[in-house]
């Protein structure tokens, strides 16, 4: 997602910014012309990631015991900030593996040549639709859907059917009900913009947003404010007396609402409008110039192993990409399956992202 994407904030576990791993640096930079084989063999492998990376202690320790490597994690802010730092240190990376570049930023990472191609062991078990780089410079790790969430109680009380599609959101009955994040400052905000580009095309998305603005859409800076302050359906939003029953969040948000509620409800208090979604896929790659290239390869293999893939949903609230990984009961009971999310090719995003965001800002915010 991820990202992803911050699916849970303070009311949903303060959530994805917390980790069971300690962050540390990747050591001194090496000469960019030196090969990995020139360096002494290291038993430490460093993963550079965005702040939302998380894994269960026991799962990580099992990998360390089996591989002989000690994993250290260098967290570097959100996905865009983390990627920027790796581009700036190209050839002399701060770690061995980078995790967290998603399909909205993928072409930028590949065009800057920060990865060494590596076909991971177990790649054949990854679903084909997630394998966007045929040169294996990056390996798909997880996916998540950015979608409009709705407050079930609000719509039941008002006896109004909740919206299900992008077209629904511009109807009069949903006027002044939706809050979304700024596409220029927020990953889910950008994802929602891309959903409209995917649905209506380069010629139609601006007209759609003009209608959405006329229908009273509210724009805030980020997910935390939108979901935990303005949205009436979340635990945080209820405390903050939020009055917007529609919010741009994630398809995995309803299971998280259940997970962190005390006591846990039999049914999630929020639902997902499955016709409003944009699918994010996150990738990992072996960094060019990695000091521990063999350890990096082993770590990438681990990230698509069944053990890690089945651990992810309740740690980062994203979906596995491998065919054999099972979702936890919390996801199968309270989550939804998005059969037809909107998608935009990474190269198309790379070519147009800046101008789309500028146009969106002029149209919706200014």
Provide a descriptive summary of the structure in words.
- The protein contains twelve helices and ten strands.
- By secondary structure, the chain is of the alpha/beta class.
- Helix 5 (187-214) packs across helix 12.
Strand content: 15-25%
User: Which sheet architecture does the biggest sheet show?
Assistant: 10 strands, mixed
Q: Secondary-structure element order, as H and E?
A: EHEHEHEEHEHEHHEHEHHEHH
Identify the overall geometry. Answer: globular
Oligomer: single chain
| Proportion in helices | 25-40%
Mean pLDDT level: 89
- Which structural category do the helix and sheet elements fall into? alpha/beta
Total DSSP E strands: 10
Sequence-ordered SSE layout with sheet pairings:
Blueprint: E1 44-49, H1 57-67, E2 70-75, H2 79-88, E3 97-102, H3 106-111, E4 115-116, E5 139-151, H4 152-158, E6 178-181, H5 187-214, E7 218-220, H6 223-230, H7 235-239, E8 246-250, H8 253-259, E9 270-287, H9 293-303, H10 306-316, E10 319-320, H11 329-334, H12 346-365
Parallel strand pairs: 1-2, 1-3, 6-7, 6-8
Antiparallel strand pairs: 3-9, 4-9, 5-8, 5-9, 5-10
